[in-house]
Design brief:
By secondary structure, the chain is α/β, with parallel strands linked by helices. 38% of the residues lie in helices and 15% in strands. The strands form four sheets. Strands 1-2-3-5-9-14-13-18-22-26-30 form an eleven-stranded mixed β-sheet, with no helix packed on it. Strand 2 and strand 3 form a beta hairpin. The radius of gyration is 33 Å and the shape is elongated. It starts with 6 loop residues before the first strand and ends with a helix.
């Protein structure tokens, strides 16, 4: 687990984060004052206060929009178009008064095309629910010490959450969310950057709409991450992201290239049921990036792997299809009720990695060929070991004959034993017959698994 980021307030009022980043108090930022003109929030959700603050923000953000643009923003947030009307004279006076009183200076209201919350420490809960961000929204290096919600927010410009740390449910660039962060039904009309963000609690993007590219490259989700019913209109990049808990991508759609290559799922396999998958969707087939078999999660993981196998089959990605099938069967080891069935599935995985390995059955055949030579060599030179240090040509002859005899036992269906070693079999004792019989049975089994591995590895039909 990544070490939790903490902040400590300095004598000059700034905050020093444990990763060395210096943060300004949010209260000193004019955009924060604008977002909380009617008052800051306590721990509970004050719906009336949130609605009044939202009216001020949206009236400011949408003041320069045309009627058509305002109508589109209202539709995206689900608000009446009147809530996005330009600020009245009284509301503008209220904003000016708040800026002067809270920032202790004569500050003019900021322009509506850009909102910067970069390098701020938010020590109190914050609600951006159904806020309209009419231009670029920058939260880089911000630190949210408690709950933050972007439920239903509309980002008309690019939104930057690069290297954000989420100790809650959401994040931005280098931003730290120390509590739950909520992006339910958020609308990103342009590119959204969450690469290397860190979500230390939960991250909820349910029903979010990413019109532009969605970049979660290297993001970290310590707890539940939900993208249920989220729509991705352009590239969705989750390469090298890390999910330490459940990741839900059910429903919704990936319209363009989607990248999960290098993504790590520590405890639970991701869920993609009923989601429309783009043909160019990639997953890693490195076993270390997927959860170990756990009796508590095996059932859900098996179902998730089955869905991923279906996706891979539809893409004709044979490598991933085989990989997810093996992951399914690994779950069966703990799910089968019958001990014999569990043993057979376990043995199948051990011997051949569920039909893909060439090295395991090949190595077993090599071992069962060479190891018995130690005993068979005395059939051809009884004093082989007692005269070992007086090595001569007859020792080489005996060793070669023993190796040939062992090989004929292992692959008895070739008929080499009857043709070349019939007299040896007649004079051999019961121990040699037993070892030879075991070789014959195991030789057939491991040769079958070797052929199966070659077929699956090279896709031979």
């Amino acid at each position: 687990m990544t070490k939790e980021l903490t902040v400590e307030q300095q004598e000059d009022g700034t905050y020093l984060r444990s990763d060395g980043v210096v943060l300004q108090p949010a209260e000193t930022n004019p955009y924060y004052v604008l977002a909380t003109v009617h008052g800051e929030y306590g721990r509970g959700h004050d719906a009336d206060l949130a609605a009044r603050n939202r009216r001020i923000w949206n009236g400011w953000a949408c003041g320069g929009l045309s009627d058509d643009e305002r109508a589109k923003a209202a539709e995206a947030t689900g608000l009446p178009i009147e809530d996005l009307a330009p600020l009245t004279e009284d509301e503008r006076d209220l904003v000016k008064a708040a800026l002067v009183s809270r920032l202790n200076s004569d500050v003019k209201p900021p322009g509506s095309g850009f909102a910067s919350f970069a390098a701020l420490c938010f020590s109190k809960p914050l609600f951006f629910e159904k806020f309209v961000f009419n231009g670029p929204a920058v939260f880089s290096t911000a630190h949210f010490a408690t709950y933050v919600s972007f439920n239903g927010a509309h980002f008309a410009g690019s939104s930057e959450f690069i290297r954000v740390h989420f100790a809650g449910v959401v994040g931005f660039a280098s931003t730290h969310f120390a509590d739950y962060a909520n992006f339910v039904a958020a609308h990103f009309a342009s590119d959204a950057y969450f690469n290397t963000a860190h979500f230390a609690e939960g991250a909820v993007f349910e029903a979010a709409h990413f019109v532009g590219n969605a970049d979660f490259d290297g993001a970290r989700f310590d707890q539940y991450a939900s993208f249920n019913a989220a729509q991705f209109g352009e590239i969705a990049d989750f390469a090298f992201a890390q999910f330490d808990d459940a990741a839900n991508f059910d429903d919704g759609a990936f319209a363009k290239r989607t990248d999960f290559d290098g993504a790590k799922f520590s405890t639970k396999a991701p869920s993609f049921f009923q989601r429309e998958m783009h043909d160019n969707t990639t997953f890693s087939d490195r076993k270390a990036l997927w959860p170990k078999v756990d009796p508590e999660t095996a059932r859900a993981n098996k179902n998730a792997y089955r869905r991923l196998r279906q996706v891979s089959a539809a893409q004709q990605n044979k490598d991933n299809e085989q990989f997810f099938l093996r992951q399914e069967m690994a779950c069966d080891v703990v799910l089968k009720d019958d001990p014999l069935s569990r043993f057979l599935v376990w043995g199948y995985g051990l011997v051949s990695d569920y039909g893909l390995s060439v090295g395991r059955p090949g190595g077993a055949l090599l071992a069962f060929w060479l190891v018995p030579v130690r005993w068979f060599v005395e059939l051809f030179k009884p004093d082989f070991w007692s005269t070992f240090f007086a090595w001569g040509p007859d020792h080489w002859d005996a060793l070669g004959s023993a190796a040939g005899f062992s090989f004929s036992n292992l692959f008895s269906f070739f008929g080499l034993g009857r043709r070349h070693f019939g007299d040896v079999w007649q004079s051999a004792d019961s121990g040699v017959h037993f070892i030879g019989g075991v070789q014959t049975v195991l030789g057939f089994i491991f040769l079958f698994f070797l052929g199966l591995g070659l077929r699956n590895r090279f896709r031979l039909k």
